Amino acid sequence: LPTPSVRLPYVPHVSPMALLGKVTVSTFALETPRCVFDGHADASDAVWLAVAFANASTAFRNPLSRADVPLYKMLLTARFYMTLETAAAAYSCSAPSAPILRVGGDTACRDLGKQDPCNGPLPSPGPYRVKFLLMGCHGPKAETRWSEPILLRRAISPSTIDPAPTRRGSALVVITSILASLGAVLATTVLGALGAKVWGSLCHQDLGTNAFICRSYQTHHIPPALPQPLPPGCGCGPPETPFHVR
């Protein structure tokens, strides 16, 4: 008979990091189990994640070999499966590893040709429980405790969404109108002041004739830029025909 696996005190849990989409309608982000299996794992061992509906976790039995691993496609019938097979060395204290593991993130698992084991989207809000299992060549070697129940978000039914925008109160409408009027008056005042300043800089009044004399303003003609010759070593084609300016 295979040697019973070692029970470790570690309890998997959703990452405490502030993340967008930490828990969605079909996925959740677990904290990576770094340093959990140090002292129990060999170089050839792998760590798996067992995922089960919360009310079916007691029925889960550790597989005796990789060939006995329950697959993702069995979730709705067996109520559990295993996924995220990872070399145990990736979770050691000395190895750099991602801070989270996304459970349910592989949408390609729905394709019929996708090879299991797979990390497919979770089909319902759950709740789910998970545990990590260290597997060696001769079966399970160590395992964590089951997590607390993890409940996913529920999708919002389109029938519950009000298509009509929320009506604003009359007081808010009055305040908005007053602010808009003040903005228009301020813009007109600023534009008038700028126009008077420009006119004063271009024109002055002749005191003898009481007439305004204005300076003319002409734009300067800027000739088009001539093509610059390529620096030595640039380009691989024949020299170009010289550019002549008439």
UniProtKB/TrEMBL annotation:
Its transmembrane ranges are 171-194
Give the record's GO CC terms: membrane
Q: What keywords were assigned to this record?
A: Membrane, Transmembrane, Transmembrane helix
Q: Does the keyword Transmembrane helix apply?
A: yes
Report the PANTHER family cross-referenced here: UROPLAKIN III, UROPLAKIN-3B
- Please report the name of this protein according to its UniProt entry: UPK3B protein
Organism field: Elachura formosa (spotted wren-babbler)
The gene name reads Upk3b_1
